[in-house]
Design goal:
Chains: A mainly alpha (503), B mainly alpha (333), C mainly alpha (503), D mainly alpha (104), E mainly alpha (124)
CATH architecture of chain E: Up-down Bundle
Shape of chain E: flat
Largest sheet of chain B: none
Order of helices and strands of chain E: HHHH
Strand content of chain B: under 5%
Number of domains of chain E: 1
Largest sheet of chain E: none
Protein name (chain C): NADH-quinone oxidoreductase subunit M
Order of helices and strands of chain B: HHHHHHHHHHHHHH
Radius of gyration of chain E: 25 Å
CATH class of chain E: Mainly Alpha
Shape of chain B: globular
Distance between the termini of chain E: 57 Å
Oligomer: heteropentamer
Helix content of chain B: 55-70%
Subcellular location (chain C): Cell membrane; Membrane
Structural class of chain E: mainly alpha
Strand content of chain E: under 5%
Family (chain C): Belongs to the complex I subunit 4 family.
CATH superfamily of chain E: NADH:ubiquinone/plastoquinone oxidoreductase, chain 3
Keywords (chain C): Membrane, Transmembrane, Transmembrane helix
Radius of gyration of chain B: 20 Å
CATH topology of chain E: Methane Monooxygenase Hydroxylase, Chain G, domain 1
Largest interface: B-E, 86 and 75 residues
Number of helices of chain E: 4
Number of helices of chain B: 14
Membrane topology (chain C): Multi-pass membrane protein
Structural class of chain B: mainly alpha
């Protein structure tokens, strides 16, 4: 590559990434040379400013045609833009949470690290979302994962934090190995790591044996990626990690990391395996052969997540199982492989972003204040601070999928996808709705605590300004998308069902 | 004839021939070690104003080392009962085998080289790293606090200095465009890399001393504090193999320095009537002498100085050197 | 089509009250009560206006409202409209809702705490109920349907009696299952037809298969499956025999004003849905299951009656009597002729009025004497002669005394069934007698039985409490004497149903 | 001697991968678990390099991929060990099954 | 074919060296076994430590610095994996690769500075 080609690339399409990496580097340097006793809070604002800047630059790129640079390794298409938007908004809000995260011990010295590790993790997620090459994809994935490992263990003096990080590393390492193993087979069969090339090469594959190998590769990658989104069979880490990690990190893992996980699943699965012929007359496309297995995993995830959540007393652990279940719902959208798949996943992730982030924002305030994560800390919240309780109630209702909230429309979209295919996925959708009803038990259990039970202490819960911003944004998002889902759906329609996904 | 051999398909016959040749080299190396040790003592004596060994085998003490070896061979071999027996036995072998293996790729002259492999330099660095494992294993298996401390220190030191070492040669690779040692030597036909890469050479040289565990960087076996470091529990021939490994590395490292920076077998200026092998031997001996010289004239460093020097001075310098080299190459070549 | 905002105004008028209440300070109890009451009035006035203008011959179609809401495909199928409209049946139901809501607001004087939250939820509940009847779009219907769930959960769980939380949860879970099943049906229909407009779906389902393009085959099996699912979904709400246990708890534990609304309207949503969707979408299939429905009706009738006979708690008696009376609705539906269906609809409305009256009176008595156990009551006629007298009158209405609404409804329902299935009807008739027995036993015990209680604080009815009683009794008698007030508006709907049934 | 078939490499890689997986799932000592994970990752590298040399469409990309895999594996191991050290300071254990303060 | 044979032969030589490297200690030690005396006594097999028999495992917990340096080594050593191919192919890659490498090494330096500032590089 000579200088001319190098300069001929449209570097501007990487602007959001550049901004994030620049801010992350800047923050790490500032943090390094800052006095020990100085407050790190301004750094958080720099981080937020960087994320906002990145969002602005991304919005500026919205009209751009799908473009690839760096020999097709980086690709900005509708899919990338849409998912990056979720991640950026999510990370921005998590930063606001992190600035106001004040646990009883073990956080003071590492506040600076928090911000830039969060940004590098975000960078990994973004790179992953718009990569056009297995290697880039993998590097992005690992940038996200490794940053998250450290983030989970950031409270170095805290046992739970250590343990959660350790478990995260072990599980993450195993899943990485699985993904890589699968990818190595894909590479072996095609001799290329470029997604577009793989797409064309594999669609011409006819050899039965090789298709068999490909199916194994598919499973390895899928199982490995299911770790990222915390679905069965790799969900075991989630409760422990969610519980032990600092609350903003938990929020990050459950939102940005999950969105990234789904982004990579769609990228890899649809592009790499989307057109592989199965050698079978009836269902000529391999992925439709494997659909039932994905559906099985989705079903198992929903059942496991929702039933085990029933007996949790720790609020973060409960939310962990809830997020497993929610991932299962989104997986239903993937398993049904319908016309609406991408839209449904995107919309649900947006809804999930608002509702779950809101929940974590309030959880963070409550648990910081009391030092306990037991669900009983929410008792009488309505008496103590009615508005906070109402906001929390809205988020919980949205998670439960009650109409009028974004969560409901998201579920609607998923159902539509599940039913519109032929044959329709009646069983899967039924499991989904049945487990949703099961989830009422624990979601409304939280509401019971907040509204029906007497308060332990009558102290007011006051939201710091940063968290207040997050909560207000999330309420607006949750209710707004519940009542006017057209906003998001119209926004989505400009990508035309991500038709430029495969370039 | 050797050409034909190399071009023939690999077979057991080849294996036998190579084996014979390698044994010959081994003998040479053992000879070097024997007289290297003697030379070291003599040079030491000379520098310290005394005579050194002079009784055994004539007036210069020529048989002194041989006597030492025999003594070691006949010495009773003890393995402490608390030691981890299998590892204890294995450790000297792990330490020695790579030391000998690295010699396979060193080109002594354009003809006299055993294995001309494409990634010779990488091979050298990679294989030599294994020795560290042997040393740590020895320290660990002894189940002795001195030994363990020595082993850990050795490991810390060797890995710390390995980084400047590998970084410093990048300049050389940059100018040659190859990892093949023969290519590297041939690229120095006109000008030696010591002139193009003075900084690289300096870093390399210092790091190589540390890698060899020689004074001023001989912390792992610091007699006065750790008794003898990782091999405190070893005696007899097992101990001898650690020593042997050390001296074979001295040989190898001096050879590598010659190859990388001193133009290998290339003659100085017009003196090309003298065969390459002699030139190589001369340069090689010079390097060995310098190494000995340093050993006797410098005091041992403190542990903290040692580590911080490696990380805070050598590594940044080596990194900077890479870029200056790249820029020079970009601008002037 | 005229642009009219009347229906929106009607449905969302309680929202105004909610907003106003939000700004009223918690301590001003009197203001809250007045605002809460007044907020129910606009809906009442508007619905009365609609009723009388319809009686005067106005065309209801002019009130239809339709706006694009959101679409899963932009400008294509799979979009959802905001679509309100009424017919005679729903008009009557809206009127009933508005009247009962106003009366329940008056009855809410018995509530003891947290007026503000109570009235906000109360008005939200009213909004939901009004919306359910006005929705012309399945998704909209479902949203309003679920919207009733949440306020009910809180109203029961917070302002109920001793086992309120348990009652709230069982209400939530049963109805959650019901609405989940309903959602599945709605989404399947949506996915297959691409629309959620009720009239459009009716038209598509009515036309023979293959004549109208759909997005998936609607096979006969699917139709039966959907119908059964609908029956289960609405059967839970109604409640039909094996799915009724939640409703007992709610009736016993919820505050009286809420039970008025619950038994008066919420249960009727089940019947409404069954008629509107079950009968409206799948008339053919409904026909072939008529016997089953009639049998279920008879079982409900007898089961409710038997169990009501052995209850100690007056509220339980009324709860089982509700089950029993809902059996009559089913009997009417099972007959599938004009008289039967008209009877069913009459029963829906009549029972709405009667049970509201009964529960109001029970609430009055409970407030004075602190119990509703028949064994501990007795001789109320002496202490509270007026209340006892009204109670007796209401019981008479309930057991179908001629001249009151209950009689008309039961008479027509049985008339219809005797025409079609005389044997089943004969068995069912036993239930009518049972009704008289258990009601008289309970009421006579309470009014004239031996007083077991000292009734220290008992006083007779307050002036304000006369308003609901008079209004309800007046309506009951009006319908009983002059059924035309109902039958005339319903005629058009009945004709449509009969055409759907093929004559 | 040059005719070692591709399948031999693949089987070797698969065996290594399985050994690593077994170790990662069953061993108590976290260090061993981390090493097992490294083993799995290196199995992948064997695969990649074998494909890159003897695959259906041999090219250099596989080796580049392997390089990245090595780097990432190193980073992961480094982070893993760092976390392990922090954990050890707090808990005085490196056993996986003693990390149970969050069970309920 | 010649090239392939050369290639293989070269590696054969490496194997030969490996064998020899292992063989020499084995042979020497085996030979030594026949030559050296064997007169065990209790004291000879004690651990060398001030004359008092240590009564438990001497694998004491050592300073965490060792680990941290090991971690640093792993990171920096692996990064050189990228520098070597770049250096070899430098002529073909040219200025663009130089800039890229500059960024890469700057990142490395940043890491080094980070470690420095965090006092990781300080020995005891």
């Amino acid at each position: 590559m000579d200088l001319k080609t190098f300069l001929s690339f449209e570097w501007s399409i990487m602007a959001p990434e550049f901004i994030i990496i620049g801010v992350a580097t800047l923050l790490s340097i500032i943090d390094l040379f800052m006095g020990k006793d100085k407050s790190r809070r301004p750094l958080g604002w720099i981080g937020v400013a960087g994320v906002v800047l990145a969002i602005i630059s991304l919005v500026g790129l919205l009209d751009k045609e799908a473009t690839s640079i760096l020999h097709d390794t980086f690709r900005l298409d509708g899919f990338g833009k849409a998912f990056k938007l979720i991640m950026l908004v999510g990370a921005g809000m998590v930063l606001l949470l992190a600035m106001n995260y004040e646990p009883k011990e073990g956080m003071k010295e590492y506040r600076g690290e928090f911000y830039y590790l969060l940004l590098t993790a975000l960078l990994g997620a973004m790179v992953m979302t718009s990569s056009g090459d297995l290697i880039t994809l993998f590097v992005g994935l690992e940038l996200l994962s490794i940053s998250s490992y450290i983030l989970a263990g950031l409270r170095k003096k805290n046992k739970l934090s250590n343990e959660s990080a350790m478990k995260y590393v072990i599980n993450g390492g195993i899943s990485t190995a699985f993904i890589l193993f699968g990818m190595s087979y894909v590479y072996g069969l095609t001799g290329s790591t470029n997604l577009t090339e793989i797409f064309t090469l594999l669609s011409n594959l006819q050899n039965e044996k090789l298709i068999y190998v490909l199916a194994i590769a598919f499973f390895m990658i899928f199982v490995g990626l299911s770790f990222k989104i915390a679905t069965a069979p790799f969900h075991m880490w989630a409760p422990d990690v969610y519980q032990g990690a600092p609350t903003p990190v938990t929020a990050f893992l459950s939102i940005v990391s999950k969105a990234a996980g789904f982004a990579i699943i769609l990228r890899v699965m649809i592009i790499v395996f989307g057109q592989v012929s199965s050698g079978n007359e009836e269902t000529p496309i391999l992925i439709f052969h494997l659909q039932d297995y994905i559906a099985f995993l989705a079903g198992a995830t929903m059942i496991i997540g929702n039933t085990i959540a029933l007996r949790q007393r720790n609020i973060k652990r409960l939310l962990a199982y809830s997020s497993i279940a929610q991932a299962g719902y989104i997986l239903v959208a993937f398993a049904s492989l319908s016309y609406f798949m991408m839209d449904a996943i995107w919309f649900y992730l947006v809804a999930y972003l608002f509702m779950n982030l809101g929940v974590f924002a309030i959880i963070q305030v409550i648990t910081d204040k009391s030092g306990s994560e037991d669900i009983s800390q929410f008792a009488g919240l309505y008496k103590r601070s009615p508005l906070v309780a109402v906001a929390m109630g809205i988020f919980i209702l949205s998670l439960a999928g009650i109409p009028g909230t974004a969560g409901f429309i998201g579920k609607l979209n998923i159902f539509l996808g599940a039913f519109v295919t032929s044959p329709a996925h009646y069983v899967l959708a039924s499991i989904m709705i049945a487990t949703t009803v099961v989830s009422y038990f624990y979601y409304f259990g939280i509401l019971t605590q907040m509204f029906f039970r007497p308060a332990i202490d009558d102290s007011k819960v006051k939201l710091p300004s940063g968290i207040l911003i997050v909560v207000v944004l999330c309420v607006i998002g949750t209710i707004g998308l519940g009542i006017f889902p057209g906003i998001a759906l119209d926004f989505l329609s400009q990508f035309d069902r991500f038709s430029d996904f495969i370039g | 004839m050797i050409e034909n051999l190399l071009n023939s398909p690999p077979s057991w016959l080849n294996f036998g021939i190579f084996f014979g040749l390698a044994t010959a080299l081994l003998m040479v190396v053992l000879g070097f070690v024997t007289y290297g040790i003697l030379a070291e003592r003599k040079v030491m004596g000379f520098m310290q104003g005394r005579i050194g060994p002079n009784q055994t085998g004539g007036s210069w003490g020529l048989l002194q080392t041989i006597a030492d070896v025999l003594k070691l061979l006949l010495k009773e071999d003890t393995i402490p009962k608390l030691a981890d027996r299998p590892l204890f036995i294995l450790a000297p072998i792990i330490a020695f085998a790579p030391a000998f293996m690295v010699l396979a790729t060193i080109p002594f002259t354009d003809k006299l080289q055993f294995a001309n492999i494409g990634v010779g330099l990488l091979y050298y660095i990679a294989v030599s790293g294994i020795t560290t494992v042997g040393i740590v294993t020895g320290g660990w298996a002894s189940n002795n606090k001195y030994a363990l401390m020595g082993g850990m220190r050795a490991a810390a030191q060797m890995i710390s200095y390995e980084i400047p070492l590998v970084m410093s040669v990048i300049g050389v690779i940059l100018f040659t465009g190859s990892l093949n040692l023969v290519d590297i030597v041939e690229a120095q036909e006109n000008v030696w890399y010591i002139f193009l890469q003075p900084v690289g050479f300096l870093v390399f040289f210092i790091a190589s001393i540390a890698e060899l565990n020689r004074t001023p960087f001989d912390l792992p076996e610091a007699e006065s504090e750790l008794v003898a470091g990782f091999h405190v529990e070893y005696s007899g021939f097992r101990w001898a193999f650690f020593m042997l490994a050390e001296y074979v590395y001295l040989f190898a490292m001096a050879a590598l320095t010659t190859v990388l920076f001193l133009g290998g077998w290339h003659p100085v200026m017009f003196l090309d009537f003298i065969p390459g092998a002699v030139w190589f031997a001369l340069k090689f001996s010079f390097v060995v002498f310098i190494l000995m010289w340093i050993r006797y004239t410098f005091p041992r460093m403190r542990a903290d100085q040692l580590m911080e020097f490696g990380w805070k001075v050598l590594l940044p310098v080596a990194l900077a050197n890479i870029f200056i080299s790249a820029l020079i190459k970009e601008l002037f070549f | 089509m005229n642009e009219s905002y009347l229906l929106s105004l009607l449905v969302f008028s309680p929202l105004l009250g909610i907003i106003l209440l939000a700004f009223v300070p918690k301590v001003q109890e009197q203001t809250i009560k007045i605002v809460g009451f007044l907020a129910t009035v606009p809906a009442l006035l508007l619905s009365l206006f609609l009723y009388f203008s319809y009686r005067a011959g106005a065309d209801l179609a002019q009130y239809t409202e339709k706006y694009n809401w959101f679409g899963f495909i932009k400008d294509g199928p799979f979009s959802v409209e905001y679509d309100l409209g009424i017919n005679g049946f729903s008009l009557v139901m809206i009127l009933l809702t508005a009247i009962l809501s106003t009366l329940a607001a008056i009855a809410s004087i018995h509530i003891k705490k947290e007026w503000k939250g109570y009235f906000m939820l109360f008005l939200l509940l009213e909004l939901g109920m009004l919306g359910v009847f006005a929705a012309e779009n399945l998704i909209l219907f479902f949203i309003f349907f679920e919207l009733t769930l949440i306020p009910m959960f809180f109203l029961i769980g917070k302002w109920g009696y001793f086992e309120k939380e348990k009652a709230a949860f069982s209400f939530l879970i049963y109805n959650g299952i019901g609405s989940a099943i309903l959602l599945i049906v709605i989404m399947i229909l949506f996915a297959k037809t691409g629309t959620t407009k009720i009239s459009a779906i009716t038209a598509i389902l009515a036309s023979p298969q293959g004549t109208v393009p759909t997005f998936g085959a609607i096979t006969t099996e699917l139709r039966y499956g959907l119908l059964i699912a609908l029956m289960v979904a609405f059967g839970i709400k109604l409640p039909i025999f094996p799915l009724h246990s939640w409703m007992l708890r709610v009736h016993v534990q919820a505050p009286p004003a809420i039970v008025m609304l619950h038994s008066g309207i919420l249960l009727k949503i089940g019947a409404f849905g069954l008629i509107r969707f079950g009968l409206g979408f799948f008339p053919e299939e409904f026909k072939s299951m008529a016997v089953l429905i009639a049998i279920l009706g008879v079982i409900n009738l007898l089961y409710g009656a038997f169990l009501a006979f052995i209850q100690d708690d007056f509220k339980m008696v009324l709860a089982y009597s509700s089950i029993s009376h809902m059996g009559i609705v089913l009997i009417g539906l099972g007959s599938l002729n004009e008289a039967g269906i008209q009877g069913a609809i009459f029963q829906v409305i009549s029972h709405g009025l009667i049970s509201a009256l009964m529960f109001f009176l029970i609430g009055v008595i409970y407030e004075r004497v602190g119990t509703s156990m028949i064994g501990r009551l007795g001789g109320l006629a002496k202490v509270m002669p007026i209340a006892a007298g009204f109670l007796l009158t209401a019981a008479m209405a309930s057991l179908g005394l001629p001249g009151m609404s209950g009689f008309v409804a039961e008479f027509m329902a049985f008339l219809g069934l005797f025409k079609e299935m005389p044997i089943i009807a004969a068995v069912g008739a036993i239930g009518i007698i049972m009704t008289a027995v258990y009601l008289l036993r309970a009421v006579l015990n309470v009014t004239y039985g031996k007083p077991n209680n000292t009734y220290e604080n008992a006083f007779d009815m307050r002036p304000i409490e006369f308003v609901p009683v008079f209004v309800l009794l007046g309506l009951i008698v009006l319908i009983g004497v002059y059924p035309n007030v109902l039958s005339q508006p319903l005629q058009l709907v009945l004709d449509t149903i009969m055409i759907g049934l093929g004559g | 001697m040059s005719s070692v078939p591709l399948s031999a490499y693949l089987i070797l890689a698969l065996i290594l991968f399985c050994i690593g997986l077994y170790g990662a799932l069953t061993k108590r000592n976290t260090v061993i678990v981390l090493i097992s994970i490294e083993l799995m990752l290196n199995a992948v590298n064997i695969n990649l390099v074998a494909f890159s040399k003897f695959g259906l469409m041999p090219n250099i990309t596989g080796q580049i991929f392997a390089l990245f895999a090595i780097t990432v594996a190193a980073a992961e191991a480094a982070v893993g060990l760092a976390i392990l050290i922090a954990l050890y300071r707090n808990r005085k254990t490196v056993n996986v099954d003693e990390m149970n303060s969050m069970k309920n | 074919m010649d090239l392939l044979n050369q290639y293989l032969n070269n590696y054969l030589i490496v194997i030969v060296f490996l064998c020899l490297g292992i063989l020499l200690p084995v042979v020497a030690l085996t030979a030594g076994r026949f030559l050296r005396p064997h007169a065990p006594s209790e004291a000879k097999y004690t651990t060398y430590e001030s004359g008092i028999e240590p009564f438990h495992d001497s694998r004491v917990q050592f300073n965490v610095r060792y680990y941290i340096f090991a971690l640093m080594f792993v990171i920096f050593d692996v990064e050189t994996v990228f520098l070597y191919p770049w250096a070899v192919a430098y002529e073909k890659l040219g200025i663009v690769a130089l800039i890229e490498m500059l960024i890469f090494v700057l990142m490395l330096l940043l890491g080094l500075v980070y470690a420095w500032k965090k006092k990781v590089l300080k020995w005891i």
